[in-house]
Design brief:
The complex is a heterodimer of chains A (223) and B (379).
Chain A: E1 4-15, E2 18-30, E3 35-39, H1 46-53, E4 61-66, E5 69-70, H2 76-86, E6 87-90, H3 102-107, H4 117-130, H5 146-158, E7 164-168, H6 176-192, E8 196-201, H7 204-207, E9 212-217, E10 220-222
Parallel strand pairs in A: 3-8, 3-9, 6-7, 7-8
Antiparallel strand pairs in A: 1-2, 1-4, 4-5, 9-10
Chain B: H1 4-11, H2 15-47, E1 53-58, H3 70-75, E2 80-88, E3 102-105, H4 107-113, E4 117-118, H5 121-129, E5 133-137, H6 138-144, E6 151-156, E7 161-173, E8 183-186, H7 187-193, E9 202-207, H8 213-223, E10 231-235, H9 236-245, H10 250-279, H11 281-290, H12 294-323, H13 341-368, H14 371-378
Parallel strand pairs in B: 3-8, 5-7
Antiparallel strand pairs in B: 1-9, 1-10, 2-3, 2-9, 4-7, 5-8, 6-7
The chains are: A alpha/beta (223), B alpha+beta (379).
Chain lengths: 223, 379
């Protein structure tokens, strides 16, 4: 059984009485330890699929199962708790809280767990070491470069050891060198730490790092 | 407690705005505590005074004196145990801003009638024995740093000239509402220095039976009804209450000002919280993406608003409490004026309520925030 199973997924947005279909009958399976890239033009429905997979949005029809849990049937409250435990989200623009240090940003998801302060410190220190930012723990986002900010964002996404890592254009705001470092880091997380990753990107070069590439165009998903 | 840091960093995110909001709440609650204390002190002052003592004054007005001959006629009334009298002096000590009430009294009969003024027996005897002696409230002694045996000179306004008194006794009232900033001296001294042109301002009558007050009052006023100086007699408590109503409808004024202030500050605090919440729509969406529950974000926003108003509230009401502690200069105008603990508790409750009301809408918005729509604005 695949880690992620998407069956006949349909999403339609409504604007007044007008229906705006995003995609219809999408099927997808992602295996454990897979590293899948999802490409496609703007407005093709990539981010919508990612949001549905993360439980941030509700599908119009169809089902999503992650690790045996039926995501589409959960309430808002259940989804939040499930997301905290199973989803690691990496944003294009990092989305770190500017008033918190790198350490405090990474610690955020752990505040939702029952871990003690000491245990939280151990987890945060470990992931900051994995992303190579131990010496920047006390720096605020404004004191970091774009590449460093994104590495903090990745550390935050993996600190609670989620089931799947969802990365939405993680290199979209970075220069070539930083983008390469981030892709290498994602690749390492997949290979060394067995993280399952779904990478949404416009960049064919970035997609090459994945095991497989899917294309989404006008709501149709294809290999 | 692990979320306290989040609240703290958000409060310190825009320090100037937070400080200004805290100060605006502090000023409002200071005003509230002060105005409410005026009302409670006036109410208490209206309650002070015995039901067993009557005040007989001129029916024309309190500033008109009464003939000395009334003394014997009042004493002769059935149901009257003793009679004393007093005059308003209206002197100035150094500067007009140093206002305090001064009374010329028939010392022996007056002190016998007011056992609530506590003083050592030797001081009482020293005051009674010396014609230029003064009896001073403890609060007034502390206010001007006076000491026993010190000479104090008042400049007369009604009775012109410099009047020097020697402080021979210091009283402490049983009830703070009686006031500890009063100044008493001998009527005889006033009588002699004004070449015997002074007559009693009002009479104080001790009744044998308080229940007889209406009947005795009525009888006294009827006795002088057709004289050239008709009287108005009432219990001391009724007299004090009437005196306090001369301030106007303070209760209504305080409630009106208090309500206006409450809503003005509510809008200030609510606006601050709305601004802070608007700035953080994206961050709240990110927190929700990380798994923060709707209820947790609601609570964090509400706590933030409440911390602001509570800080302001504590600053305001405790500021008023410290400034208007017992013996403060306002006691000269309103005896017993101080910020009671009940006012402090009410002020803190209002501050908490203010925080809840001002924070509710932004907290609700944070709770209902659509992550997908909010992320489109930041992602």
């Amino acid at each position: 059984m695949a880690l992620v199973e998407i069956r006949d997924l349909t999403k339609v947005y409504y604007r007044d009485s007008q229906q705006i279909p995003v995609f219809e009958g999408v099927n997808l399976e992602i295996e454990q330890r897979d590293f899948l890239a999802l490409m496609g033009p703007s407005g093709s429905g990539k981010s919508t699929l990612l949001n549905l997979l993360a439980g941030l949005d509700k599908p119009t029809a169809g089902s999503i199962t992650v690790g045996g849990a039926q995501v589409t049937g959960m309430s808002r409250r259940q989804l939040a708790a499930w997301r905290a435990r199973h989803i690691g989200f990496v944003f294009q623009f990092y989305n770190l809280l500017p008033v918190l240090t790198a350490y405090q940003n990474v610690e955020l998801p752990l505040l939702l767990t029952s871990l003690s302060r000491k245990e939280r410190r151990e987890h945060v220190t470990t992931v900051l070491d994995v992303v190579g930012l131990t010496d920047r723990a006390d720096h605020f986002p404004r004191q970091l470069s774009g590449g460093q900010e994104q590495r903090v964002g990745i550390a935050r996404a993996i600190v609670s050891d989620p089931t799947i890592l969802l990365a939405d254009e993680p290199t979209g705001d970075l220069d070539a060198k930083s983008a390469d470092e981030i892709l290498t880091l994602l690749q390492r997380l997949n290979e060394e730490f067995s993280k399952t990753i779904l990478l949404v990107t416009h960049d064919a070069h970035a997609a090459e790092r994945a095991h497989a590439v899917m294309h989404m165009d006008k709501g149709v998903l294809s290999r | 407690m692990k979320f306290a840091r989040l609240v703290l960093v958000n409060l310190l995110r825009n320090k100037r705005r937070t400080i200004l909001t805290v100060l605006s709440v502090a000023v409002a609650l200071f005003l509230f505590a002060t105005l409410r204390s005026v009302v409670t002190a006036l109410d208490a002052a209206g309650e002070v005074g015995s039901e067993a003592r009557l005040i007989t004054r001129s029916a024309t007005g309190i500033t008109f004196a009464l003939p000395q001959s009334y003394y014997e006629r009042l004493r002769a009334q059935e149901g009257v145990r003793s009679v004393s009298w007093a005059n308003w002096f209206g002197g100035v000590y150094v500067d007009e801003r140093n206002f305090f009430a001064q009374f010329a009294v028939d010392a022996e009969t007056y002190l016998a009638m007011y056992p609530e003024m506590r003083m050592p027996e030797d001081q009482r005897q020293a005051f009674l024995a010396e014609r230029t002696a003064a009896l001073v409230g403890r609060g007034l002694m502390e206010r001007f740093g006076w000491s026993l045996g010190q000479d104090v000179t008042l400049q007369g306004t009604i009775f012109t000239g410099d009047w020097t008194f020697t402080i021979r006794a210091v009283y402490t009232p049983d009830d703070p509402s009686f006031g500890d900033q009063l100044f008493f001296f001998h009527y005889d001294y006033l009588y002699e220095r004004t070449n015997r042109r002074i007559i009693p301002g009002w009479y104080v009558i001790q009744l044998a039976d308080p229940a007889a007050a209406p009947e005795v009052s009525d009888r006294i006023d009827r006795m002088f009804e057709n004289s050239s100086n008709p009287t108005e007699t009432e219990t001391e408590r009724a007299f004090n209450t009437g005196f306090m109503t001369m301030w106007g409808n303070i209760g209504f004024l305080v409630r009106a000002v208090g309500t206006a202030v409450f809503f003005a500050i509510l809008f200030v605090a609510a606006n601050t919280m709305m601004m802070a919440a608007r700035e953080r729509v994206g961050e709240n969406a990110i927190l929700k993406t990380l798994g923060f529950q709707d209820g947790l974000l609601f609570a964090l926003t509400l706590v933030e608003a409440t911390v602001i108003t509570l800080l302001g509230g504590l600053l305001g009401v405790f500021g008023a409490k410290v400034l208007f502690r017992p013996g403060n200069p306002m006691n000269s105008f309103i005896p017993g004026f101080q910020v009671e603990w009940s006012t402090v508790a009410l002020g803190v409750t209002i501050a908490l309520l203010l925080g809840f009301v001002s924070g509710f809408v932004p907290a609700w918005q944070a709770k209902r925030l659509s992550v997908v729509q909010a992320l489109r604005r930041v992602a």
